[in-house]
């Protein structure tokens, strides 16, 4: 429990110190005597630089068109500084199911084998701290891990452009971690009867890699009274509760590679050494902003502003583009059906059926003067399936082994983020 509470407590302490410092600076700024005036040339040069920078990023700020000001308050676009802390995890689960029947001549099957092997690779639940700066709806920042190490390698990048009723974001994640697996085996034969073993767990000695790219976009139909970014960006304020039907699109590309020396992760009949998944989804849902508290600003720097808003977004999506490419070892057999040590690498591509994926977001924001404290969470879940394999292996004595295998799995990621923002 201490491992969980300590990073959270550290985050709150940093927020408190940052808030105290900025509050003191704001007071000093309000009551300090006027500084000496700079020369006219210096003032003009500084204004030109500032105007050029603001002009470049102004296009990324909400324009205010089509907004009902009784429902949405839009502060003047300005620079923002943000401190954030988050908890997150990404992983992949891969299942390899096999059913085999052994026949002697034309006689009924005398032996049956059922087996399932689950290979799971995920980063440990970990904590990050970060800082960011931005203007309006565009921001740029950097995060770093605190506490225990999440994986042997962990790299992530994030780019987002969000307006009140539409936006898009791209996320890249690359982890390298040792997978672990669980096996279940059941054997039925005339000699031994039914034998079943399950829950056999082990960890690989070699790290596998997962590279993931997720891009998504959203559109809110009630753009006049509903601001999606009121909670998830903080560049506007929702004055009254409102909701909107949403349209969303998502694309996911992921590649998993197991180490060539890793017989553990390649266990199972198919001997899969890696796979690539692509999915494209379109869906719709509903998003609602619940305003629990709101007081309009009464002075400069949003002085007097008080707002507490919560958001819930649920968006099931139909996956139309669903493909998987696998790389597997195909071992050679001799005339008696015995497996040899030689093999060939085989690449296979298959298309999956249309299926349902899930996307959900929850969040809340408390704004006070020119400060805001935001808490949000997300959950993504992608399913994939490879085509079934049916293999017949015949031996010289007319014995026959029929093997049916199928592979499926899921890729998932979730996170909880807390952000403290100051408008300069």
Outline the secondary-structure elements.
Elements: H1 2-31, H2 40-58, E1 72-73, E2 79-104, E3 111-122, E4 126-135, E5 138-146, E6 153-162, E7 166-177, E8 180-189, E9 193-203, E10 208-220, H3 229-232, E11 237-238, E12 242-257, E13 272-295, E14 306-314, E15 317-333, E16 339-351, E17 355-368, E18 371-394, E19 399-423
Antiparallel strand pairs: 1-11, 2-3, 2-4, 2-19, 3-8, 4-5, 6-7, 7-10, 8-9, 10-12, 12-13, 13-14, 13-15, 14-17, 15-16, 15-17, 17-18, 18-19
Structure characterization notes:
The protein has 424 residues and is mainly β. It contains 3 helices and 19 strands. The chain has helices spanning 2-31, 40-58, 229-232, and strands at 72-73, 79-104, 111-122, 126-135, 138-146, 153-162, 166-177, 180-189, 193-203, 208-220, 237-238, 242-257, 272-295, 306-314, 317-333, 339-351, 355-368, 371-394, 399-423. The strands form 2 sheets. It has a 17-stranded antiparallel sheet that branches. Strands 1-11 form a two-stranded antiparallel sheet. Strand 15 (317-333) and strand 16 (339-351) form a beta hairpin. The two termini are 37 Å apart. 28% of the residues are buried. Mean pLDDT is 76; it is low at 1-38 and 56-63.
């Amino acid at each position: 429990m201490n491992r969980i509470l300590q990073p959270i407590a550290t985050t709150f302490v940093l927020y408190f110190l940052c808030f105290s410092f900025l509050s003191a600076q704001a007071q000093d700024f309000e009551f300090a005597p006027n500084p000496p005036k700079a020369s006219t040339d210096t003032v003009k040069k500084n204004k030109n630089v500032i105007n050029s920078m603001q002009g470049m990023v102004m296009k990324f700020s909400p324009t205010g068109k089509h907004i009902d000001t009784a429902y949405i308050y839009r502060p003047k676009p300005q620079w923002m500084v943000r401190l954030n802390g988050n908890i997150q995890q990404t992983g992949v689960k891969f299942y390899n199911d096999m059913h085999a029947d052994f026949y002697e001549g034309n006689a009924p099957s005398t032996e049956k084998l059922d087996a399932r092997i689950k290979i799971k690779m995920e980063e440990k639940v970990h904590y990050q701290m970060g800082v960011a700066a931005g203007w309006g709806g565009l921001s740029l920042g950097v995060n770093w891990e605190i506490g225990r190490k999440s994986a042997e390698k962990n790299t992530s990048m994030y780019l987002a452009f969000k307006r009140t009723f539409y936006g898009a974001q791209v996320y890249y994640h690359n982890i390298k971690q040792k997978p672990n697996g669980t096996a279940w085996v059941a054997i039925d034969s005339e000699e031994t009867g039914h034998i079943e073993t399950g829950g056999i767990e082990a960890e690989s000695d070699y790290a596998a890699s997962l590279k993931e790219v997720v891009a998504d976009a959203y559109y809110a139909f009630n753009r006049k009274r509903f601001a999606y970014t009121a909670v998830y960006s903080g560049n506007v304020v929702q004055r009254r509760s409102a909701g909107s039907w949403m349209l969303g699109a998502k694309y996911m590309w992921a590649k998993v590679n197991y180490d060539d020396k890793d017989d553990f992760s390649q266990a199972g009949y198919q001997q899969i050494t890696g796979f690539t998944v692509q999915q494209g989804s379109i869906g719709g849902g509903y998003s609602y902003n619940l305003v629990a508290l709101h007081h309009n600003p009464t002075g400069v720097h949003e002085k007097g502003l008080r707002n507490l808003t919560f958001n819930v977004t649920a968006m099931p999506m139909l996956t139309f583009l669903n493909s998987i490419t696998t790389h597997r070892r195909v071992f050679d057999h001799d005339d008696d059906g015995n497996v040899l040590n030689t093999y060939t690498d085989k690449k296979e591509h298959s298309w999956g059926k249309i299926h349902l994926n899930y996307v959900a977001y929850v969040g809340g924001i408390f704004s006070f003067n020119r400060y805001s404290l935001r808490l949000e969470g997300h959950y993504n879940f992608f399913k994939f399936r490879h085509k079934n394999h049916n293999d017949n292996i015949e031996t010289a004595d007319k014995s026959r082994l029929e093997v049916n295998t199928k592979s499926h799995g899921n890729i998932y990621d979730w996170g909880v983020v807390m952000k403290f923002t100051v408008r300069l």
